[in-house]
Design goal:
Elements (H helix, E strand, L loop, with lengths): L19 E4 L2 E7 L4 E7 L4 E5 L4 E8 L1 E6 L2 E6 L3 E4 L5 E5 L4 E8 L8
Antiparallel strand pairs: 1-2, 2-3, 3-10, 4-9, 5-8, 5-10, 6-7, 6-9
């Protein structure tokens, strides 16, 4: 059975969402509307998102564990309950340090390349 387009849905159950592999040790479950995208990210220990930038504003909250977030060359350990907002076109990278980590990233507008 084909999954409905996430942009046409209202409610999402984590376990019913397809898993998208972003990088080695980094997966995401994605949901989006017209102007915002949610990305529930799981990082394995040592899982790494290499430095990159995109025009989208990115906000997030660490849900479980902790990870190192580097924004514009400045590194910080982000722990469960801490939030961040990264302006568009700003170089950033992330790495789970020594344990699994879960974060919720929010993109505005939605990232088109993640929709496929």
């Amino acid at each position: 059975m084909t999954q409905p387009n996430p942009a046409e849905r209202v409610f999402f159950a984590r376990d019913d969402m397809p898993v998208t592999r972003l990088f080695e040790g980094v997966t995401a479950r994605l949901a989006w509307g017209e102007k915002v995208m949610l990305s529930l990210v799981d990082l394995d220990p040592g899982g790494e998102v290499p430095e990159h930038s995109h025009p989208h504003e990115q906000a997030g909250i660490c849900i479980e564990g902790h990870f190192e977030l580097v924004v514009n060359g400045q590194a910080r350990l982000v722990e469960a309950g801490q939030m961040y907002i990264i302006p568009g076109d700003t170089p950033h990278a992330a790495r789970a340090v020594d344990e699994p980590c879960k974060t919720l990233d929010i993109f505005a507008p939605p990232r088109e390349e993640y929709k496929t």
